[in-house]
Amino acid sequence: MEAVPARARAYVAGVACLAVLCVLPLPAVRPPWWALLFLAVLHAGCEHVARRRFAGTAHPAFAPAFHPVLLAGAFLLPPPAAALVALPGALLSRVERRPVLLRRVWRAARLAVAVAAASRVHGALGGRDAVAGADFPYVLAPAGAAVLAFCLVLTALDGGLVALGAGAPPPPLGPWGRAPVRRAWRGLLPRSLAPVAVHGLAGLMMAVLWRSPYGPLAALLVLLPMCVSWWASAQYHRERAAHQATIRALVQAVDIKDGYTRGHSERVGQASVMIARELGMDDERVEVLRFAGILHDVGKLGVPTRILRKDGPLTPEERRVIELHPEYGHEIVRGISFLGEARSAILHHHERLDGSGYPYGLAGGEIPEPARVVAVADAFDAMTSTRSYRRARPVDAALAELERCAGAQFDPRMVTALVRAVARRGWCPAVTADEALPPRGVPAPDGPVADRTEAHR
């Protein structure tokens, strides 16, 4: 069972008490019980199906609560009843990680509070009367305000849990772990607003049809396109899970074979992402560069183990052998279509701007941009990681070395982007192998980064 900080448990308990307070006035408002029961059962069923459909994906958090039904409840019912709609599905649905009970309570409480807030805002703006009269376009304004309130409450609650040490978003399924307060709420609202707005529109259509002469059964028709959308989304995330599994298998094989650089691939992927984001690349290209960084050394699978694990400088013949690893890597991933331009980075990440690199001696703009990104990320992590033959360099010293070699070995744009990204976000590299000192008789390599053994290993 994962250790959950006491402050996080207290926070979850506080939100749960707030949810109870939201539901307590239920007898006084006298809701339509059959509608409440129908929506609660419908939400629980949709939640169960959605969680099962998303089971086994790389990111189980992509199986969110079924918001169309919840928001339809917010548009149709008073706040205490709308809050109650969320509880059965959230408490009974699948949870991927422990502690199961705490996560279920948190999920149910946060949804109940958010739906109650949305229902209160919707009612205060006259939304229920507009829904009953199908009063378009005036029905849209209260619904939009309710959706915004729903997102704001979820964002506030989720960010608070992250700040208190209970995981990266989304908190219901994320790992427990504290984040700096200044970053706890960063990006939560923009990520949730667009999808919840779509769900809110579906919920509004359900509510309007519910109040129409066609009745609740007509409202169920709105769920058909939503179910198709969820099925397509599940297929997409299953495909992503397969991609991630393929990459993990290749990286693990390299790490097993080359123990000196264990973890190096993951960190090069991280540094490549930092550079790409600093350059303003779109998310799809950033993901490709992450793959490129992670797999840049996959060609080491074709290099003899005795060379990879050799202590000390390589002989000229051994250097020629290890310089074949970009071509080996390109051949290994040639048939993996989802890697896209990451394959060119794997092949060319040891090229130099002045044309003295390998395997083809490309120069300047002939080197693909992804390869220039990975080259900087690779050299940076090589210098800031401990190897068997020398200790890690300080981050500032490694960045200074990259700047010194910019223009000859590295693209200055990529170096500048990494410097800015590290200044903004920091860099905490892990030790790649063990904490060994350089072996006796093996001098620490000197000279430019391009001439060091780690630049080739």
Relevant terms:
457 residues, mainly alpha, Hypothetical protein af1432, elongated
Structure description:
This protein has two domains: 6-238; 258-455, Orthogonal Bundle (Hypothetical protein af1432). It contains 21 helices and no strands. It has helices spanning 6-23, 26-29, 33-54, 67-76, 79-92, 100-124, 127-132, 140-163, 181-184, 188-211, 216-219, 223-257, 264-278, 283-295, 305-308, 316-322, 325-333, 342-348, 369-384, 395-405, 412-425. α4 runs antiparallel to α5, α14 (283-295) packs parallel to α18 (342-348) and α17 (325-333) runs antiparallel to α18. Residues 56-64, 167-179 and 430-457 have low confidence and may be disordered.
TL;DR of this structure?
The protein is an all-alpha fold and 457 residues long. Helices cover 63% and strands 0% of the residues.
Describe the SSE topology.
Blueprint: H1 6-23, H2 26-29, H3 33-54, H4 67-76, H5 79-92, H6 100-124, H7 127-132, H8 140-163, H9 181-184, H10 188-211, H11 216-219, H12 223-257, H13 264-278, H14 283-295, H15 305-308, H16 316-322, H17 325-333, H18 342-348, H19 369-384, H20 395-405, H21 412-425
Helix pairs in contact: 1-6, 3-4, 3-5, 4-5, 4-6, 4-10, 5-6, 6-8, 8-10, 13-14, 13-19, 13-21, 14-18, 17-18, 18-19, 19-20
